[in-house]
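sorry for the late reply, my laptop died twice this morning and i had to redo everyting from scratch. anyway the thing you sent over, i finally got around to it. pasting the sequence first so we're on the same page, its 198 residues, then the predicted structure underneath. double check i copied it right bc i was rushing
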Amino acid sequence: MKTGDRFPDGIDRDKIAEGVRLILDAIGEDASRAGLRETPQRVAESYAELFSGIAVDPASVLEPLPGERGDGLIMVRDIPLTGMCEHHLLPFIGTAAVAYLPGEDGRICGLSKLARVVAVLSRRPQVQERLVADVADAMEKALSPRAVFVYVEAEHLCMTMRGAQKPGSITVTSEWRGLWREEPGLRAEVIALARSRE
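ok and here's the structure:
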């Protein structure tokens, strides 16, 4: 039996559950006690969901709308996101803004697809610094826009629960492509729109 046949989403839940049992044993817990008996399988199902973006080509969710064209700024902001930091496998939680100027052919995608590409790319072992670049790469591949902007603000539990232990600290990352990378004045306008809370 091929791995793909047994694990259509590519995630071996049995192996994850066994790993969780090993972790529980390593920290001095009894994985067979009542409160923990189902934990390994619960974690396996949770990880299958949290890492569901691994097997998805992010550009594939940005399919252009047939017969629709655009020319001006398109932005979706305040997109909720949750990701898993690949360094400690702890969550980071925040919001994203994604904006673009359609290319010469005017191709655009559905607005929900901008939120979907953020979700796909945050649902894999990830770092926020790479996430913004990955979203921009997918946008360029799928739509060939004249400009792309991706902006993420997030709190990282690897900073708030351990290590520095600074709850409430927010990490900000951004990626600029095309015209917006070359024009500081245009960048200021776009970032003001992305950060506006009014």
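Strands lie at 64-69, 74-85, 91-101, 107-109, 125-126, 147-156, 171-178.
thats about all i looked at so far, will dig more tmrw
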